[in-house]
């Protein structure tokens, strides 16, 4: 048996139960892995509260990213071996000590990346990858705005975007988070609690505004995010930590400058095996070179996942948080 966090009914952090589960035996195309570390992400909260519906209903084991070691191979698995260090970013099932998983969802972790780094960066890091390299291909001279700059995706994306030659503007909610973002690639960071971020973006850019706004906050930053874009700019909404964006008339995009808007997800961008591998390799490359540094700012035991969720929702965490089985 393996220990796991399970959700039997939607609710607050108390809905996370520490239980025994059978990880099962790997079937055709699957492997059994033992987790070394598990990533914590806001999407885990969405599944816990019911904002996102789990494909197979309840009960469910939350968690979308982890790293560990291969314990057993199922039939037909030829590109992995027992003892390989692997990592993944999938929809659910990571909050556990052991699990069976399709081998095609796994990527090998290179020697230059630790288990904790891999567990804490797969979902966030590959999200930064597709946002910067595929949703909007950031190039030298671009100006970008990223909300929640001190969050897990923000600290990775800020460093990566700066390396790509962009002017990187962020928002954060405290002095501590502002300083953290500034040492992770952000040129300017606005305290959105005290300041009008639209006015500040206008001042910072000399009225030229931004080529792209990356927004995982949602309700609290809309429609202000649209007002930070130059004509033909792109609004990329990839989360809703403050609540969903209310429905709006598409004519609003015309009124604010013939804007583009998209609602991308990692799992669509990396649905094909070749896209997943390319995304992971790009991430591992910038981390191995030291271009992007992955620092683990919070660690919780797996059994304390409820406290981890509470701290995440209260905005007490910064950057990367992991759970340790």
TrEMBL record:
Q: Domain Enoyl reductase (ER), which positions?
A: 11-323
The membrane-spanning stretches of this chain are: none
Question: Coiled-coil annotation: which residues?
Answer: none
InterPro entries membership: ADH-like_C, ADH-like_N, ER, GroES-like_sf, NAD(P)-bd_dom_sf, QOR-like, Quin_OxRdtase/zeta-crystal_CS
Q: Which SUPFAM superfamilies match?
A: GroES-like, NAD(P)-binding Rossmann-fold domains
Give a GO cellular-component term.
cytosol
A GO MF annotation of the entry reads: NADPH binding
Which terms are listed as keywords in the entry? Answer: NADP, Oxidoreductase
**NCBIfam families given in the database record:** PRK10754.1
The name this protein goes by in its record? NADPH2:quinone reductase
List the lineage, top down: Bacteria, Pseudomonadati, Pseudomonadota, Alphaproteobacteria, Hyphomicrobiales
